[in-house]
C-alpha cells in the first residue's frame, strides 16, 4: 500500500514536472513567433471565409491571443481600461502595474512588453531616445495636439496634469499657503501644524517635477531645493495617493501633488475638506509644472498586432475618457469634457513654457541628482 | 533532461573505457584511489551525485551572480554609495536588528520561563498560544497595527474624540517610526525564541538547580547563574533566527516607512539601478555572514554539557504573590500579538465580504498562490530527498559542501535571491524569464533547507542496515531509495513540503520582484491593497494566509 502510494506520488510529480517543462517551451515559442503567425493565418482564413462581412466585424474577429502591458501608473487608474479592452476585443491583457520604465530597457534583448503606459512623458521620451519604442500612424491620432506626441507617434499622451499643493482647509487657510515651488526653500513650512508631505524621489511625478525645475533653475539650485524639502517635509510617502489621504485626514497640513489627486479627494465620502493651489501662477512666475500620461508601443513587441490595435482603440474618444478613468485627470483632447467637471481646463492655467518632450533629455540626470540627494530612499 | 544527459555521459564513458586504452592505467588508478578516499570507500551513484551537484549549483548561483555583478558595478557606484548611503543604511539596519533581537530574546525567554517552569494557570494552553504569533506574517501584522494605531487609525480617532485624552495633548503615537517597526517586528518574531527556549528549559536537569539552592541561592540568582547560562545555546539559535529575519524583512519595514538594506535593494532594483542594488546586496551578504560568524564564535568559546544519566524533570516553581502579574504579562502579550491583529482582520474581512471583495479575481489570486507555492513544495520535496540521502549515507567533503551550499539562499534575504534570478533568467534563460516558474525556483532556493531539515530528522531514524539489507537482497541503489527509504521517511518529507508551501505563500519581496505580468499572488495583493489603504480588500487575503499558516504550527510545536 505504502509503496503504491509513494510510487504514484512520484509518477504524478514527474508528470507535473514534464508538463511544466513542455508548457514552458510552448509558451516561449508561441510568445515569440507562432502567435503572430497564427494570428495572421487566422486573419487570412477569416478574410477568405467572411468576405462579405463588414470591415467592422472583421476587426473584432482578427484579435485574439494576449497583450502584455507594463504600466508605471497606479493600478486603480489603469486596470478598468484594460478590462474594458479585454471585454470588447477578447484579447487577454496581462498587466504589470507600477513598472519602472527602465525595465523596458533592461529587457531590450528579451522583449516582454507590448505597450508601455506612463505618467511621466520624460520616461516615455527617454525610452524613445533609446530607440525602445516604435511609432506608427493610428487612426484619430490627430485628436491629440502634436506637442503631446513624439515625432513619429512613438508615444502619445492622453491626459494632462499640473503640479500644485493640496491642503486641508481645517488646518491652514488659502492665504497662508505657499504659492510657488520656490517658496519651499523656506524652512518656515516645517513649522506649520503637522507639517507637509512629499513623495519619495523614486516617484514618477516627482522625477518630472525635478526635471522641470532643472530646466528652469539649473542643477545647483535644484539640488538645494531637493535638500530643502527633504529637510523640511514632515512626511515622505511612496505615492501621491498616500498624500491626498493623509492631508484629507489632517495628518499633514498640505502636500505636493498633481492636481487630479485633489479631484479624487473631493470625491471621497469623508475627509474631503481640501483645497488646491496651482503652483507658480503669479505674473512673474514660471507657470505650473505640467506633465502628462500616455502610452507607446514597445519595439519588437511580441504581440505587435494587438499592441497596434490597443493604441488605436485607446485613441477612440470614448476610450480616451476611459484612459483618464478614475484618475480624474484632464483629457488632452480639447473636444472632450473632463470627467471631473470642475477641473480647471489647461487653457486657463499658466503652464511652464518647457516643451514636454524636453523631459526626456533630463530623465537620466534627474535620477542621478535625486539619488545623490538620497531622496529616492527616504521614507517617513 | 539533465538526468538523461548524465546517464548518456556515463554510457559513453563506459564504452570509452573499454575501447580506449590510451590513458595510463596508473593515473586512472591514482584518481580512483583519491576518489575512494574522499568518499571513505563508499562513493554514491553517478545519478545521485549529479542531482546533488546540480542542486548545489542552482542554490548558489544567484548569490554568486550578485556578488560578481557588484564587483563590476564600477568605481562610480561604489564611491557614491560608500560616501553617504551605506553608513546611513548600516546604522538603520543594525540598530533595528540589535533592538528587535534583544527585546524578542528578553520577551521570548521570560515567557518560556513563566510558561514552562511556574505554576501559571492554564500553562498547557499557554504553551501553544504563545507560539501563535508565528502564523501572522509581520507585514500583515504591520497592516493591522496601522489600522489601529496609525495617524488616522481607530485609536487616533478615539483620542481626538475623547475629551480627557485630547486634553493631555496631541495624539502621541507615530507608527511610522523606528519604534513602530521595532514593536511590530518584536511582537511577531519573539515566538522563535519562545519555542526554542521552552524546549531547552523542559530538558534542563534539576540537579544543577538543587545544588545551587543548597548553596543558598535565591530563585532569581539561580535564574541568572544556572538557568541562563544553560540556555545560552537556545538564546543563540533564537537570536540568529530573529536577526536574520530582521535583516531580510521587506513587507513590514516598507509598510511602516522605514528603510533598511533590504528595502533599499528593493527600491534600487525597482528603479532598475542594478549596479547600486548589487553593491548594497554585497554589503548585506557580508552582514549576514558576520552575524552567523559572531554566533558560532561566541558559542565555541563556551561548551555546555548536561549529563543524561542522572536526569531529573525540572520542578515547577510556585509564583505566589507574583501570579496575577505573570498572568497579566502573558495575557498582555497574547492580546497584542494575536487577539488584536486577528480581530482587525476578521472585522475587515466581514466588511470586505459584504462589499463583494471575495470574487472571481480574489479566487484567481488565491489559485496563483497555491499554484506557485505547490510547485515550490513539490520541487523541494523531490530535491531534498537525494541531498539528505547523499549527506547521511555518503558523508564526504563533497556531500558536505553540497549541503552547505543548499543553505546559502536560506540565510540570505529574498531580495538578493530575486535579484540574482532576474539577472540570470533575463540574460541567460530568456524562455523562463517572466513566467511563474521563476518565482517557484526562487522559492526553492529560499526554502529548500526547510524540507531538508525535516527530511533529515526522519532519515536519521532509519538505520543504514535497512539499506544494506535491501542491497543484499539484490536491489540496485536507486530501487532501495524508492522502495525502502522514501516510504519510510515519507512523513518527514511531507512535513517539509508543508513548511515550504506555507513559507512560499507568505513570501513577499521575491514574489513582488519576480512576478510576471498579470500574475499576482495573495501576498502581493495584500501588500498592494494595504498600501493603498483599501483594507476591506486586503483583509480577506491576509486572513487566508494566516489560516494556511496554522497548518505547520502543529509540526513546529512538536519539533521543539
From TrEMBL, chain A:
Q: Segment Disordered: which positions?
A: 27-57
The record's listing under SUPFAM superfamilies reads: Periplasmic binding protein-like II (SSF53850)
Q: Which Pfam families match?
A: SBP_bac_6
**Keyword terms:** Ion transport, Iron, Iron transport, Metal-binding, Signal, Transport
The record, for Gene3D superfamilies, names: Periplasmic binding protein-like II
**Entry keyword annotation includes Transmembrane helix:** no
MF terms (GO), sorted A to Z: metal ion binding
Locate the residues binding Fe cation: 260-261
Biological processes annotated in GO: iron ion transport; transmembrane transport
Q: Where is the signal peptide?
A: 1-19
Q: Show the GO cellular component annotation of the record.
A: outer membrane-bounded periplasmic space
Superkingdom of the source? Bacteria
InterPro entries reported for this sequence: Ferric-bd, SBP_1_CS
Task: Describe the family membership recorded for this protein in Swiss-Prot or TrEMBL.
Answer: Belongs to the bacterial solute-binding protein 1 family.
The name of this protein is Iron transporter
Q: Which organism is it from?
A: Salipaludibacillus keqinensis
Q: What is the lineage of its organism?
A: Bacteria, Bacillati, Bacillota, Bacilli, Bacillales
UniProtKB/TrEMBL annotation, chain B:
- A single Pfam family it belongs to is BPD_transp_1
Report membrane topology. Multi-pass membrane protein
- Annotated compartments: Cell inner membrane; Cell membrane
Q: Domain ABC transmembrane type-1, which positions?
A: 90-295, 366-556
Q: Name one GO biological process term.
A: transmembrane transport
Parts of the chain that traverse the membrane: 46-68, 88-116, 128-156, 176-197, 234-256, 276-294, 325-350, 362-384, 405-425, 431-448, 480-505, 534-557
Q: Where is this region: Disordered?
A: 1-20
Q: What keywords sit in the KW lines? A: Cell inner membrane, Cell membrane, Membrane, Transmembrane, Transmembrane helix, Transport
Name of the featured protein: Iron transporter
